Amino acid sequence: MRLLALSSLLLGPTLALCASSDNWKSRSIYQVLTDRFAMADGSSPSCDTSQRKYCGGTFSGIVNKLDYIQNMGFDAIWISPVVQNVEGDTGVGEAYHGYWTSNINNINSHFGSSDDLKKLSSALHDRGMYLMVDVVVNHLAAIPTNTSDIYPEPFDYSTLQPFGGQSSFHTQCFISDYNNQTDVEQCWLGTPSSPLIDLDTENSTNVDIMNNWVKNLVSEYSIDGLRIDTLKHVRKDFWPDFASSAGVYTVGEVLIDNTTYASPYTQLISGVLDYPTYFAVFSAFTSTSGNVSHIAEIAQQAQKQYKDPFASGSFIENHDQPRVQSETSDQALVKNAITWVFVNDGIPILYQGQEQGYQGGSDPANREALWLSGYNTDNKPLLTHVTKLNAARKAAISSNPNFLSTQATFHVQQSSSSSSDTHGIAISKPPLLTLLTNGGEGDSSTVWTVPGNDNEGGGGFEGGQTLVDVFTCEEVNVKSDGSVEVTARNGEPMVLMVKEIGEGVCKGSGSGSSNGASGFMRMGMGMGMGVEVGVVVGVMGVLLGMVVI
Ligand code: ABC
Ligand code: CA
Description:
The protein is an alpha/beta fold and about 550 residues long. The chain has helices at about 1-10, 15, 20-25, 35, 60-65, 65-70, 115-125, 180-185, 205-220, 240-245, 260, 275-285, 290-305, 330-345, 380-400, 500-505, 515-525, 530-545; strands at about 30, 75-80, 85, 100-105, 130-135, 140, 190, 195-200, 225-230, 250, 270, 315, 345-350, 410, 425-430, 430-435, 445-450, 465-470, 475, 485, 495-500. The chain has two domains: about 20-400, Alpha-Beta Barrel (TIM Barrel); about 410-505, Golgi alpha-mannosidase II (Immunoglobulin-like). Residues about 1-15 and about 510-549 have low confidence and may be disordered. It binds modified acarbose hexasaccharide and calcium ion (CA). Calcium ion binds near residues 138, 185, 198, 233 and 234.
């Protein structure tokens, strides 16, 4: 830790500029909606999501609440877009979410100053954490200058900076056919009353502006990674140059339910937010009649088709989709759904508020202010659950150097009686064996049977070993042939690890469990010098002629 703090002092942005996919793969991301996460003064004003107005969260508010995030074991945050947005009330509220850019060269003053953002960046780096910023290329926004039913609508295009007026944008048309890719790329998102003015990304001046902009943004604020909005709405061959101008890990939003459409985008930038698998997991775990075998099908397609499945973003909630608890209040189902995020191949992303049990439905209801929870960490079973999952993942990374390049294998369980549906699915990613069920609360009939070490995709355990569930410390004995058989308890998920490692996690003393910072450092060392630590040690060695840890 000392080493990293010292290195950021000496090297400044250099370290941040080096954050590649490989640096990100071992991390775990907490998604912050900047306006809704924390007030600068720690106050707790009311925030009615249905109003779609700024509620007051800021960059410095985030700085003051980094302990809350890091103590759950997260070592990166993703924040809302940071640039200046359209002011005032549009047809659908204010730009509190940050996606309605008016000037890419200014910082959104509602969130703080440029210095405040730099302070957030260095506060994160001092803790060994990463900063991911959301960026929008596809569109900008303005309020129509005449609100009558004129069509096409008139805008003051000069407010869209630094672009050259109307000719810098695609001619107004709204996307009507999502099967027509030209429509998707060159027509507009939004509605006639609140349009998203589509940038002409075929225009080489605009391309240069965007590439230079992202390069400067990343270096000025020492950004470690980008979440790219509306990836599928810009022509594919725009993206490789943009990503290389950024020079950091890039994960793109391609909102779609199938891997065939999403996969080509994984060739262009580091990875995609894994929406196809999200849809399968969400529908499997929001009802006891969901289809768990569909998870295996889609996840296996992603493994085959994504260029680097380990660089995709794994999530079960975000600010655009209804929360899990808006669909089900069954806590066993909710825990199973959350568990998925941390035990498959992608980089885990948790959306703020899920750990507090938030239940908001579709946008804007899913954007509840976190301060209303009081950032409570006591008697918050989901927060404890997430903390253990982060710790288990870090322990897995430390103990198996190949964990981050080993694809998960899936074992959809046969139902015990022919009349009942299949609820169980086991996910083996040594040293983790995860047992999920959508049997729901009260389910004590799901049985998971996972083949032994010698069988393809087995748990990787030796006969006679003792495993523990990282959530409960419950022990499970591996059979002599290496196989494992477990019966569900109250529909709860289980994550099994050999006792020597898993016990530290379930008792809360494992890596990353209570102090993300020390977990981070242990992880780096356990990896035989994680890439970033290795780089720093190398550079430090040259600069100081010594290695400090
Ligand atoms: C506002 C209001 C909403 C209102 C909406 C019309 O206007 O708040 O209540 O419903 C920002 C704000 C939003 C705001 C929008 C529009 O701007 O956050 O609050 O909504 O002004 C990204 C961001 C998102 C952001 C924007 C715009 C883009 O994550 O937060 O929104 O910068 C499309 C885009 C996707 C975009 C999403 C909002 O719209 O592709 O990038 N998200 C189908 C299409 C998708 C489409 C989706 C929703 O519908 O394929 O492309 O997303 O319109 C699956 C299918 C999918 C299907 C889904 C719904 O079902 O496989 O194809 O998606 O089964
Ligand atoms: Ca476009």
